[in-house]
Amino acid sequence: MHAMQYEITLPADYDMDVIRGRVSRVGHLLDDWDGLGLKAYLMRERGVDGSPVNQYAPFYLWHTPEGMNSFLWGPGFQGLANDFGRPVVQHWMGLAYEVGAAAGAAPEVAVRRRVSVPEGVPLAEVTAEAVRESGRLAALDGAVCAAVAVDPRHWELVHFSLWAHDTPKAAGEVYRVLHLSAPRRDRLPRGRQW
């Protein structure tokens, strides 16, 4: 599994209905994308759910690198780059994925929490704890799914969860889910991924 996200931070007075409209027009285009486990079309609005910014920030879980690459090098990502400029694409290697207690529900919100891996801490302990946290989150009421991944270049963990209600039980940045494309969610490997 590979996790991926890009963030497009928009001006404070930006009309976020433009983003809602964009997603309603093009969100379905990845509903059957080969290699994609799920794409959550995420948005934060300044002053809502504690967000300091307006932001469009889709989050992806890929079950094949080929699917991810065909998206990045194809017309979908190029269309986004044409409209907003080419964003930095953050990428993490999957550590764990768990189906949540509310797996069949449509998610309303997502929570992302990024954590630096401190120097001098045994990596096996850090990753084992991250995997346990992912399982703990998935077991909570309202959880659709939970995942954790690591960027070994910057030694950063990213915890990601989707929630079927607007009061998530996870700490981190809260995003509204505008659409969920999940064509191969059943192919995302469950549990620890090594």
What's a concise summary of this model?
The chain has helices spanning 17-26, 65-72, 75-84, 123-138; strands at 2-6, 8-10, 36-44, 54-56, 59-62, 89-99, 109-116, 143-151, 156-163, 173-181, 191-192. The protein has 194 residues and is an alpha+beta fold. A hairpin with a 4-residue loop joins strand 8 and strand 9 (156-163).
Strand order of the largest sheet: 1-5-3-10-7-9-8-6
**First and last CA, distance:** 11 Å
Beta-strand content = 35-45%
> Rg to the nearest angstrom?
16 Å
Major sheet, described briefly?
8 strands, antiparallel, barrel
What is the average of the pLDDT values?
Answer: 96
Unreliable segments of 5+ consecutive residues: none
Number of domains: 1
Tell me the CATH topology. Alpha-Beta Plaits
Gross morphology? globular
CATH C-level class is: Alpha Beta
CATH architecture descriptor name: 2-Layer Sandwich
Order of helical and strand elements: EEHEEEHHEEHEEEE
- Derived from helix and strand composition plus strand pairing, the structural class reads alpha+beta
Q: Portion of residues in helices?
A: 10-25%
- Count the E strands: 11
Helix segment tally: 4
Work out the oligomeric state of the chains in this entry: single chain
Characteristic terms for this protein:
194 residues, alpha+beta, Alpha-Beta Plaits, 37% strand, globular
Describe it.
With 194 residues, the chain is α+β, with helices and mostly antiparallel strands. It has one domain: 2-Layer Sandwich (Alpha-Beta Plaits). The chain has 4 helices and 11 strands. Strands 1-5-3-10-7-9-8-6 form an 8-stranded antiparallel β-barrel. A hairpin with a 4-residue loop joins strand 8 (143-151) and strand 9 (156-163). 36% of the residues are buried.
